[in-house]
Design goal:
The structure is a single chain. The chain folds into two domains: 155 residues, no CATH class; 178 residues, no CATH class. The chain is 76% helix and 0% strand. The relative contact order is 0.11.
């Protein structure tokens, strides 16, 4: 056993929830962002402007989402070059065989393939052949074996959430908004979770509401401590910057979470806000304005997941735009500020509790 532990240490194979559930999942979301999400945005802009080159460019970027996810996961696991490059084929196979739940299959299979590739890396004199072969053969074989059931399970669970939100928009609006919003601020990837589960429609709208509540909420609530730099870094960057402060005083998490519990059902029950763009947008909030952009692209050109859920292209009216602005920016700012003011007055939040380091 000691020899095995020493081998794992030498190969930098760290079997832990943080390595796989935080580092790998977060990197996977970045891979998605740099391929599918940005590609979708570029393609939509091209479609609206009638620029075929942008449409093609966006399509090329989006088509590389599976290899981008797998390579990003390998990077997070600190895979050596031959393993890292070989993961592109593994990601493509896992995503294709995983169907609608392909991203979850990519996550699981890319992790296994990367660790196996790392285990054999530089162990033979023909490393150039052995390492890519082991990584690709193991990954594609595993994809053929487990990607379809993983994909089916993820698709079924995501469909359950989408359909349940349509049937019970009030309570599911609260639940989805709060849970996805919390996931966005935690050091895990809400974007990858939403993409994996295929959250679209009302469920996607609730997720957008919860994520925006966290980002805009923390940005506004901490303005007195962090000023304009904090407003931008949290409001358009990430509320994850507050995790260190949350550990010190968990009560600072109450105002934006309560705001999300309110804006979620407002999105689902009052404005019937649907996020029918790519599901990754549902977990992005106001990061690069991807959440609102996802709603906009969903109006004009619904994603494949949304089309499968019964969505159709619509021409947004005034109330659609008003609802989007209220749910994504105005209400999170006002509600979180108000709740934060109350908690400051009763001493639950003290001066400096929300100050960002650096």
């Amino acid at each position: 056993m000691e020899a095995f532990k020493a081998f794992l240490k030498r190969k930098n194979i760290v079997i832990s929830a943080r390595r796989y559930g935080v580092d790998a999942l977060g990197a996977m979301a970045q891979g998605l962002f740099c391929s599918l999400l940005i590609g979708t945005i570029i393609k939509t802009i091209g479609q609206q402007l009638g620029v075929a080159f942008l449409v093609d460019m966006g399509g090329f970027a989006a088509a590389m989402s599976a290899p981008a996810m797998a390579v990003a996961i390998g990077y997070a696991l600190q895979a050596p070059p031959l393993v890292l490059f070989s993961l592109a084929a593994v990601g493509q196979a896992a995503n294709a065989l995983g169907g609608a739940g392909g991203p979850l299959a990519v996550l699981v299979i890319a992790i296994v393939a990367a660790e196996l590739g790392k285990a054999v890396s530089k162990e033979t004199k023909i490393d150039l052949l052995v390492t890519p072969a082991v990584t690709i053969v193991a990954g594609v074989a595993l994809a053929d074996l487990i990607a379809p059931p993983i994909g089916s399970a993820a698709d079924a669970f995501g469909t359950l959430i989408n359909k349940t939100t349509e049937l019970h928009p009030l309570w599911m609006g609260i639940a989805v908004s709060v849970l996805v919003g919390i996931a966005l601020t935690l050091p895990i990837s809400s974007a990858a979770i939403c993409h994996t589960l295929g959250l679209v429609g009302l469920a996607g709208g609730a997720a957008v509401a919860g994520c925006c509540a966290q980002m805009v909420g923390f940005a506004v609530m901490s303005f007195r401590e962090n000023r304009w730099g904090g407003l931008v870094s949290q409001g358009i960057g990430t509320s994850m910057l507050q995790m260190g402060n949350i550990v010190k005083n968990p009560r600072i998490w109450i105002p934006p979470t309560l705001a999300g519990a309110i804006t979620g059902p407002i999105a689902t029950c009052v404005f019937h806000l649907q996020m029918n763009g790519d599901p990754i947008n549902a977990g992005m909030g106001t990061c690069g304005l991807c959440g609102p952009i996802g709603v906009w692209t969903g109006w004009l050109a619904p994603s494949q997941q949304a089309l499968a859920n019964g969505a159709t292209a619509v021409a947004p009216g005034l109330m659609d735009w008003v609802g989007l602005a209220l749910v994504c920016v105005v209400l999170p700012a006002v509600l979180t500020w108000a709740f934060g003011l109350v908690l400051r007055r009763i001493g639950w939040i003290r001066e400096g509790d929300l100050t960002l380091e650096g």
